[in-house]
What we know:
Layout: H1 9-18, H2 25-43, H3 53-73
Amino acid sequence: MTKPVTLSNEAYEALKKVKGKGMSFSDVVLKLIEHSNSEQDFNKFAGILKAQASELEKFKVQIEEDRARNVEKV
């Protein structure tokens, strides 16, 4: 079943730019919705692991030391 949808010229042009060869506008809309939902799923984890500033600094120092050791090996 299909449904008619009204879009502004701006929205139509934006969808048209995203639309690839062989894609329908329905495919584009579904792809954008899927992408949007996956970002929202990811964003729900933002800030879940709150670390103390001292822990973050230790982590940063460890990364820098590991990188220096890896450069020396090359």
